[in-house]
Each structure stands twice: as structure tokens, then as C-alpha cells.
Give the backbone structure.
Amino acid sequence: MELGLDGIIATNTTIAREGLGLKSDSSLVEETGGLSGAPLKERSLEVLRRLYARVGDRITLVGVGGVENAEDAWQRILAGATLVQGYSAFIYEGPFWGRAIHKGLAARLRTSPYATLADAVGADVRKTA
């Protein structure tokens, strides 16, 4: 907040391997490059919740890391993301991936207590605060 940032992208990659549940052979687990996609799902959601608890709606939070489907996007919104970014799943799922996310989010919104996606932003964090 002191830096006057307009937003934070949380989180795109990690070099950490602990707690990611990797079952690969040891040579892959010991690699040091950035890791993205599904292995980041839980950790990125945790970081996003912590950020939202700290900054609320004062800046834009972009939820990214392990977003594979509409449920993942919905969880990012409830955790405080005003924007959701996906890349790895788009590469693997193809050009209709975005449409599936849109349809899934619309379905979740219809059955939720929220009138708009903006109303849902951070709702899970606000409940526990």
C-alpha cells in the first residue's frame, strides 16, 4: 500500500517444492526452475486470502496459479480476486477453455447469494474476519 501499487498478481510461479504433494522422481523434485499450474492451486489460494485480508478492496488482486476450471476461478473470487488469470490450463484445454470458465462462473453466480461477481469478491475472507 505504501508503494501506491494499483494491483498485485498473486501468484504466478514458485521455486518452492515443499508442500506441493509432488510424486515425481527425485530428479524432478530437485529442479530449481519456476513451477506453475495445478501444483500451485492451494498455495496460491492461501496467498490470495492472506493478501485480501491485509489490503481488502483497496487494490486490485489478480488470482492466478492452478486455475484449471470454473470452480477454481470461483474460489479465487471468493478469496478476494477482482481478476482471475489462467494460462497453463488454457494451453492444455485449448481455445474454448475461457468459454467454459465463463459458463461455469455464471452458473455458480446464479445459485449463490450474490447479485454480481463483484459482490462475491472476498466473501469467504470477510466471513472469517
Remarks:
- DSSP finds seven helices and three strands in the chain.
- The two ends are 20 Å apart (CA to CA).
- The chain has one domain: 7-128.
- Residues 49 and 79 are 5 Å apart (CA to CA).
